[in-house]
Design a protein that fits this description.
This protein is α/β, with parallel strands linked by helices. About 25% of the residues lie in helices and about 25% in strands. It has 11 helices and 22 strands. The strands form 6 sheets. The protein has a 9-stranded mixed sheet, with helices on both faces. A hairpin with a 6-residue loop joins β1 and β2. α4 packs parallel to α5 and α8 packs across α9. It is globular, with a radius of gyration of 26 Å.
C-alpha cells in the first residue's frame, strides 16, 4: 500500500528522546537536551492510503505449522532468549563499543548455520574482509554464514527476500538508512524507519532479525526510545574493558522471562561460555586475608557467588577521606558505613574505605549490604573470614532483613562447598550480632 501524493510533511525531532515539533528549536523542551532539533520528513496526519484491507483471523484458529522457537546452539544465549529465537522475532542487542556484540553474533551465526540453514550478516560498519578476518580469528568456518557490506535498509530487506536465511543480522541499526527519509544514518527518523522496515520483514516472512545497537554515554541504546518498544527482545552485553567476563542480560522479552543473564569469557578466540560462573568467580580467591567475603547474588533465576573485597586505610585528617566503590551503588556503601559507625561500633570517620566486587560483576540488590559491612568490619578488626558467605539488607537502625529466595542462595553456597553462612535465615537479625559472629 502506498500513501497518496502530498502525504509528507516536515517536522523537527530531538536526537535524544524522539520528541517532535512542527517548528525548529535550538533545544528539546521534553528532555532538556541542548542539541538543536533536526529536520525530518514524516507522513502527514490523515493521509489516505490505498489498497486492500489487511487480513484478519480468529484467535481460535490453529497457528501456522512450523517450529515456534529455534535454538541458537549457544546455551548461554539460549538461556537469555528463553530457549532460542522465536520465528519472526526482532531482537535488539546493545552494548558499549568493543564489548563483543559483533563477535557474539558472529559465533551465533556459525552455530545457527550448523543446524538451521544459512545466516546473512548485513554490515554497514565494516567491510566484508574485516568481518572475514574476525571470523577466521574466532574459528567461524561455516560456508552458510553469508556476509554483505550494505548500508541501505531496502537493499538489506531485498537481500533477505532473496537469500531466505534462517536469521538476518544487521550490524548496526544506527549505521543503516533509507533514501525515503531525510537526514543522516543514526538520526531519530532514520533509525525508527529503518527498524520498522526490518521488523515488518521479520513479521511477514517469519525470518528472525537481530539488530546490533550502539549505546550512549549513559548506557542506553542510541536513537529514539521507541526503538526498544518496537522490537520483541532487548539484550545488553556488559563487561569491563579490562576484564574477561561478559554478561548478556535480558531487559525485555515478549517470549520469555526478563533479567536472565548469560555469562561469557572473552578470549583471543572469541567468547566462550561459562556454565559455572560461581566456580570461575571465586576460583582464585584467597580467603586467608581479612576483607574478603562471599555473596550469592541472583541474576534473574540464576544464582552466582561473587567475592566482595574491602580495604580500610587509617587517615590522619579530622574528616572522612576517600570512599571508593566498584560494582555497587555508592549510596549503599555510604549507608553501610554509617550503620557500622553508629551501631557496629567500628570507627571509620577518618579512614579511607575501598570496596570492590571482583570479576567486573555489578550488583544492584540491597541484599549485598551485610556482605559489604562484614568485609569492612573484618579488615578493620584484622579478622579473616575464610569461605564465609553473607547476605541481608541493612537498615538504618542496624537491623538486618532477609533477601529474596534464601533457599536458592543457600543451595549455591553449599554447592561450591563454602560456608558458614551469616544471614537472617540463620537467625542473625542485628549488625552487632553479625559482627560478633565473625570475631
Amino acid at each position: 500500500m502506498k500513501a497518496s501524493a502530498g502525504s509528507k510533511k516536515l517536522t523537527y525531532g530531538c536526537v535524544e528522546c524522539g520528541y517532535q515539533s512542527p517548528k525548529w528549536m535550538g533545544f528539546c523542551p521534553q528532555c532538556r537536551s541542548t542539541a538543536a532539533l533536526v529536520e525530518e520528513s514524516v507522513p502527514a496526519a490523515g493521509a489516505r492510503r490505498t489498497g486492500d484491507a489487511p487480513a484478519v483471523v480468529s484467535v481460535s484458529d490453529s497457528p501456522a505449522e512450523g517450529p515456534d522457537r529455534a535454538p541458537t546452539g549457544i546455551s548461554e544465549l539460549d538461556r537469555v532468549l528463553g530457549g532460542g529465537i522465536v520465528t519472526g522475532a526482532a531482537v535488539l542487542v546493545g552494548g558499549e563499543p568493543g564489548v563483543g556484540k559483533s563477535t557474539l553474533l558472529l559465533q551465533a551465526a556459525d552455530a545457527i548455520a550448523t543446524t538451521g540453514g544459512s545466516v546473512v550478516i548485513a554490515t554497514a560498519e565494516e567491510s566484508v574482509r574485516q568481518v572475514q578476518m574476525r571470523a577466521s580469528r574466532v574459528g567461524v568456518t561455516s560456508e552458510d554464514v553469508k556476509i554483505a557490506s550494505v548500508a541501505d535498509v531496502d537493499d538489506i530487506v531485498a537481500l533477505g527476500h532473496d537469500q531466505r536465511p534462517a536469521a538476518l543480522i544487521v550490524d548496526s541499526i544506527q549505521t543503516v538508512s533509507t533514501t525515503d527519509i531525510s537526514g543522516a544514518a543514526g538520526g531519530v527518523a532514520q533509525v525508527r524507519d529503518s527498524a520498522a522496515r526490518l521488523i515488518a520483514f521479520a513479521k511477514s516472512t517469519g525470518i528472525p532479525v537481530i539488530l546490533v545497537g550502539h549505546v550512549t554515554k549513559d548506557g542506553s541504546i542510541a536513537g529514539p526510545r521507541t526503538l526498544e518498544h518496537m522490537v520483541d527482545v532487548v539484550l545488553y552485553l556488559e563487561g569491563e574493558s579490562d576484564a574477561g567476563l561478559r554478561f548478556l542480560r535480558s531487559i525485555k522479552n515478549r517470549y520469555g522471562s526478563v533479567n536472565e543473564v548469560g555469562v561469557f569469557d572473552m578470549t583471543a578466540e572469541g567468547l566462550s561460555e561459562v556454565p559455572d560462573p560461581s566456580g570461575l568467580l571465586v576460583a582464585h580467591r584467597d580467603g586467608s586475608r581479612p576483607g574478603s567475603i562471599l555473596f550469592p547474588t541472583i541474576e534473574g533465576k540464576r544464582p552466582m557467588v561473587v567475592e566482595i573485597q574491602a580495604l580500610v586505610v587509617p587517615g590522619e585528617a579530622n574528616q572522612p577521606r576517600s570512599r571508593s566503590v566498584t560494582g555497587l551503588p555508592s549510596s549503599r556503601l555510604h549507608q553501610v558505613l554509617g550503620v557500622l559507625d553508629r551501631h557496629g561500633r567500628i570507627g571509620l570517620r577518618n579512614a579511607e574505605v575501598y570496596v570492590s566486587v571482583m570479576g567486573g560483576v555489578k550488583i544492584a540488590e540491597p541484599a549485598a549490604d551485610l556482605a559489604v559491612a562484614l568485609a569492612v568490619a573484618s579488615v578493620a578488626n584484622e579478622v579473616s573470614l575464610g569461605r564465609t558467605a553473607a547476605w541481608g539488607e541493612l537498615g538504618l537502625t542496624g537491623d538486618i532483613r532477609d533477601a529474596s529466595r534464601p533457599a536458592v542462595r543457600t543451595g549455591e553456597i553449599e554447592r561450591i562447598s563454602a560456608g558458614p553462612i551469616i544471614s537472617p535465615s540463620q537467625g542473625i537479625r542485628r549488625i552487632e550480632d553479625a559482627i560478633a559472629a565473625i570475631s
